[in-house]
Amino acid sequence: MGLFGSFQNAGPGIDPNAPKKKPFFRFWEILWRSLGKLFSLNMIHALLHAPLFLSLIVYLETNNALTVPLAIALLILQLILEGPIMAGCARVLRLIVLDKPCFLGDEFKKGFSQNFIPSVLVWLLDTIVIASVVCGFYVYPVLMQQVGSKLVYIPYVISVAVALILLFMNFYLFPMIVATDLKLKSVFKNAFMLSCASPKQCLISFGGSVLMLAIVVVLIMVNSLFMGLVAFFPAAFIGYLVMFVNYPVIQKYVINPYYEQSGEQNPEEDAPISEEERVFTDRGGTETPIKKEKPKKGKTIS
Questions:
Q1: Which of 111, 123, 127, 248 could disulfide-pair with 83, CB 3.0 to 4.6 Å?
Q2: Terminal Cα distance for the chain, rounded
Q3: Is the residue at 75 inside a domain?
Q4: 3 state SS of 60
């Protein structure tokens, strides 16, 4: 930009071998640079949740023999689509975090279609666990009153703990589904081990997600017009946060060791170029800036 100086003046350039910024600063740098893609991804995410919104409209605004069956059918459709939607988002967010070129629509389509079956199975498991926890919230207090013992809460605490572990595993499940060719059994095994090995990262992702959702809820309570935010930002921001925080763990323990053992070139890293194949050398950051001399004013003859 030439707002504060001439863009025509040659500077030292950008050093390609400069050390990476610290994660906190790099997080905001990539976020700002990819803001447009995140907005677009969030809009795709919102549009593909149309069956959920339609089911609510059908259930609340109609009252006939087809109301309940149609609402249930739309919910089932959303249930089937939810996993592939998350897989598509995970593929795009992974490329954003890796700072790789990304054609959003094409990459989302690949993540959605190529990982359809595994992502559906993962989301079905998630749904069963979520449903059991929600049902327990209503059922166990009633059982405690009937039995008269607080020991009834023990299985509920266990189910909540299992749900929390599965939540932490989800920070790794969908990224591994789109980034590796592992079988689903191995994906679950690795996700469990990684969630146990990285409690700090999981808590950061969980806390950041809860904070973001809380901010959105508060804004909507202040003014219902803020409901429009749901279409543009929260889901993509949460996904970006989780991918930025947790994907390096997958790289460290799953992806990098595989390529080191196999001797293959890691596609997430730039391949070294030999001197014979090198076309030019990037000297960014080492060149001496060219100082442009001010033109001398000519003499005026009166």
A1: 123
A2: 41
A3: yes
A4: helix
